[in-house]
Design a protein that fits this description.
Helix content: 10-25%
Number of helices: 3
Strand content: 35-45%
Largest sheet: 4 strands, antiparallel
Number of strands: 28
CATH class: Mainly Beta
CATH topology: Methylamine Dehydrogenase, Chain H
Distance between the termini: 16 Å
Strand order of the largest sheet: 1-28-27-26
């Protein structure tokens, strides 16, 4: 066989592989997109995206309307919709998390009960049948509560509530909050904290079955990450660095196996911690606040002072969001990204907020290919480069 024949056969095989890779990428890329979520009519031009449903179809956050700042719900079919305000409440609300299909939204709002209190907010739960409903607060302190996460079926809600009286602490800036788990049968139930939690704590994530909750609590000297399990109670999360003086858990995977937290360290640069099955890994050289993680723990997003909004994977390390999205051919020119706040379970849908090309604050939603498709794209480019080398040899 001549050199020309070998080159022709090799090129034919490579062409077939390139065609298959390109076909697969093109088929999946139909769902690849980037867009702003817009804003509500009648108010300031502004919106933020703070969470996304597990299936990636519904984005929740906040925007200004003629009635004030409302919690919002967005999907492709309906666009951005306000969730209303509580009767007699104030003009502030924020959607923080959504159920698997987006039919339940939880967050923070002013209310008639809390608007004149020290904190001025309370936790809410919204669905299409009942609308915006107050979750109340824990007894024993000023009226204040906040909801941060919800289970995929909408049954359990977690957050924090004030247990502070006006003279509880000499320093009014000290935290006097208690973590809670809420459900329709039992209402708001306080989660126990360790004995050294002298300044309260808060939750940030709940597993899909509602039996695992993560958060942070404050002692006299440090802020410590904790995990609560229904059958085991509360404990400090493992492998917490001895020189850490402040850490806050920000997100938990649906199966309760993976959590992420930022950490400040004495005498050296901080970073963040990724826990998997109770084993903590300190990610150094990546200072920032990891706000979100997908179901497998393979992609993490948040914000820091260097990039603004960032994405982290094992393969890329920490990179700016605009660089990450540009890899998939998404046009994000003119955007300045402030923060990543959520991922769908499969990690393909990414939400957050920043400044749009017109100079207004706006929430955004990006959809990227499946990991296998991204690998095929890389294969296609590699094949193309090899084919060119063969053609010129």
């Amino acid at each position: 066989m001549t050199t020309r024949e070998r080159s022709w056969r090799f090129g034919t095989r490579m062409g077939t592989m390139l065609g298959l890779a390109t076909f697969a990428v093109a088929g999946s890329a139909q769902g690849v997109s980037f867009r702003g979520i817009g804003d509500l009519a009648g108010g300031e031009t502004y919106s933020q995206a703070w969470g996304v449903s597990g299936d990636g179809r519904v984005v929740v956050g906040t925007s200004y309307s003629a009635d004030g700042r409302q919690a919002t719900r967005w999907d492709v079919e309906s666009g951005l919709q306000g969730l209303g305000i509580l009767p007699g409440g104030g003009v502030y609300a924020l959607g923080r998390a959504a159920s698997q299909d987006g039919s339940v939204v939880v967050g923070i709002t002013d209310s008639a009960l809390s608007i004149d209190s020290h904190e001025g907010v309370e936790a809410f739960r919204w669905d299409a049948v009942g609308g915006l409903q107050s979750l109340g607060d824990l007894p024993g302190g000023e009226f204040e509560s906040m909801a941060f996460d919800v289970t995929p079926d909408g049954t359990y809600v977690v957050g924090s509530s004030s247990v502070r009286t006006p003279d509880h602490f000499a320093d009014p800036q000290e935290s006097g909050r208690q973590p809670f788990r809420w459900d329709a049968v039992n209402g708001m139930v306080a989660l126990p904290l360790p004995a050294d939690a002298t300044h309260g704590g808060s939750t940030s994530g709940v597993s899909a079955d509602g039996r695992t909750v993560v958060g942070s609590y404050q002692t006299d000297t440090v802020e410590v990450p904790f995990i609560w399990r229904e059958d085991e109670g509360t404990s400090v999360m493992g492998d917490f660095p001895a020189d850490a003086y402040r850490s806050e858990v920000r997100a938990l995977s649906p199966d309760g196996r993976i959590a992420v937290a930022w950490v400040s360290l004495l005498g050296r640069d901080g970073g963040w911690i990724r826990w998997e099955d109770g084993v903590g890994e300190l990610i150094t050289g990546a200072r920032g606040i990891p706000n979100a993680v997908d179901a497998t723990g393979s992609i993490v997003g948040g914000d820091n002072s260097t990039f603004g909004a960032f994405i982290w994977t094992r393969e890329t390390g920490m990179v700016a969001v605009e660089d990450f999205l540009s890899r998939y051919g998404l046009d994000v020119s003119g955007w300045e990204f402030d923060s990543i706040q959520g991922f769908s379970d499969d990690g393909r849908t990414i939400v957050g907020f920043g400044t749009n090309p017109d100079g207004y604050g706006e929430g955004f939603v990006a959809v990227i290919p499946e990991p296998s498709t991204a690998m095929l794209l890389g294969l296609g480019l590699s094949v193309l480069a090899t084919r060119r080398r063969v053609a010129t040899s």
